[in-house]
Amino acid sequence: MQATMSDEMLELIAQRFRLLSDPMRLRILHQLQAGEKSVTELVEATGASQPNVSKHLSTLRTHGLVRRRQEGNMAYFSIGAPFIFDVCNTVCDSMKDELEQKTSLLGQIG
Amino acid sequence: MQATMSDEMLELIAQRFRLLSDPMRLRILHQLQAGEKSVTELVEATGASQPNVSKHLSTLRTHGLVRRRQEGNMAYFSIGAPFIFDVCNTVCDSMKDELEQKTSLLGQIG
DNA sequence: ACACTCAATGCTTACATGGTTATATGTTTT
DNA sequence: AAAACATATAACCATGTAAGCATTGAGTGT
To answer: What region holds the HTH arsR-type domain (chains A, B) (predicted)?
Structure first.
């Protein structure tokens, strides 16, 4: 990170994190990691309502995190910003590490 | 990321991102990157009110992102989860990349 | 004990956001 | 053109949360 950080920059970064701060959106993105999916497929996979999925997809698209392709009646969505998975992996790794630390501490006690 | 993702796991990941989704908290963390700082120092550096800073520090601490050390009258805070900077760097890099892409596209047009 | 300083804690307000329901738009099929 | 299907949008409600303000709590020095 830089030495100084402008307000706009901070706002942009925060915004990106905010997009990733919702379980349902994470679920959608997780599904898209396997490849392009239609709205209906995402509805089935996530268990959310169709309007809910559509709205999330809309906000994700507005911010460039997913792409949309229309084919006939259906809309196919796919990942639009690969950085997502780098970020998620980093977070998952950190959680795994912390979990292991706690586990090993428990091992020392027991 | 794994093939399947439990609800609790998604909630935990989302929670971490939520912590990073606020500009003021990012500002605080950014300040702490340079090293341990007291609340007063953070108040001065961020321009926020003291209660506001304290509250953010409290939530960050609750989730293990910062550590607290008391010395006499003052409380010194420091980064408690190094993964933060990996994540932030990934996001910053992605934004830089996208910016460069847009810039080069503009170059092609102009 | 008192005053002073640093930090934390309610309390309230204002605003953003996620979810639901109902409806609209758009496309294919009959 | 009418019905059926896929997706998007609008209106609404409930909840969460960030910021401000006043206050309390905790430590230090007189």
So the answer is: 5-99
